[in-house]
Design brief:
heterodimer, A: 225 residues, mainly alpha, globular, B: mainly alpha, rod-shaped
Chain lengths: 225, 73
């Protein structure tokens, strides 16, 4: 029942928007642009939550499992919105995209490079989202490698939004890109430093017995303090 | 997938839907920017969208008649 409510709201909303996109007039263009922007917001939030989980610095008042669930859900919501963003373009007559233009990078004559970044990002998102469900089958290491693609995917989405988006000159949209990119870059740096610190801490007890004499003075230990 | 924390997920879905509908309404009020079209001055290069502003004195947005003309061509 609860699942049906969430999924009903999600897919019902998508169907209503796609129906609006199919009506005569420029609505497909509006729905596509709006869905692209909201997809970017959802995917940025998902990336930020993922970085909070991996750097073990999520909000203390929220259970870790809740942060993880929202990270996963926002990724799926973002992917659904990417589907709406691309699907609405099929009905659009402002730019006239074909299905191949939407699915194949560099097939579009409209800002080919910038659109290709978005197409690549969509395929990457689909692969990353699918990897959640086959995690046990592909193993933790492969899953992590695929999951690192999220960073490339995020920057492809940013580049696509800035370059292909007709709204990137609008101040609200421009600052949304700038602030979200700054947040992702800062948290990524924090995550890398936190991972190095954790590695250094976990090595230290064993290192004192075996490796400590040969360690370069102050190299990784300085990060752990 | 959707059972745990379903209220938060429903709120996120409704929030996204609200943003989507709000954005569509705002865009519908503004109309299609001429710069978005492939035949426009910067349509095939970068995502600027300010050409209509610089070529038409005093107009901050392309007018609806501009849109109709460019769509017809």
């Amino acid at each position: 029942m609860k699942s049906a409510l969430v999924l009903g709201a999600l897919w019902g909303g998508m169907a209503a928007m796609l129906f609006a996109a199919a009506t005569p007039g420029p609505y497909a263009w509006y729905v596509s642009r709006a869905a692209g922007l909201v997809a970017y917001v959802a995917l940025s939030a998902s990336v930020l939550l993922g970085l909070l989980i991996s750097s073990r610095s999520g909000p203390r008042f929220l259970p870790k499992v809740a942060v993880f669930e929202m990270h996963q859900f926002l990724a799926v919501l973002g992917l659904a919105l990417v589907g709406l963003h691309a699907g609405a373009l099929v009905f659009d007559h402002t730019v006239n995209f074909s299905i191949a233009d939407i699915l194949v990078p560099f097939a579009s004559s409209y800002r080919p490079g910038w659109v290709a970044a978005g197409v690549a990002r969509a395929w990457l998102s689909a692969a990353i989202a699918a990897s959640f469900w086959v995690k046990k089958r592909i193993g933790q290491k492969t899953w992590r490698t695929i999951h690192f693609g999220s960073f490339a995917g995020y920057f492809l989405a940013l580049v696509h939004g800035f370059g292909a988006g007709t709204d990137s000159h609008v101040p609200v949209v421009y600052w949304m890109y700038v602030v979200s990119a700054a947040a992702v870059v800062s948290l990524t740096i924090f995550r890398v430093l936190a991972a190095r610190s954790m590695r250094a801490k976990s090595r230290r007890p064993a290192g004192r017995r075996t490796v400590a004499p040969s360690r370069a003075p102050g190299a990784p230990a300085s990060l752990s303090s | 997938m959707a059972t745990r924390y379903w209220r938060t997920k429903l709120a996120a879905t409704i929030g996204a839907g609200g943003l989507l509908i709000g954005s569509v309404a705002l865009m519908a009020a503004e109309g299609v920017p001429a710069a978005a079209q492939p035949g426009s001055a910067n349509g095939a290069t970068t995502g600027g969208g300010d050409i209509a502003v610089t070529t038409r004195e005093g107009a901050s947005q392309p007018t609806r008649s501009d849109e109709r003309q460019s769509r017809a061509s």
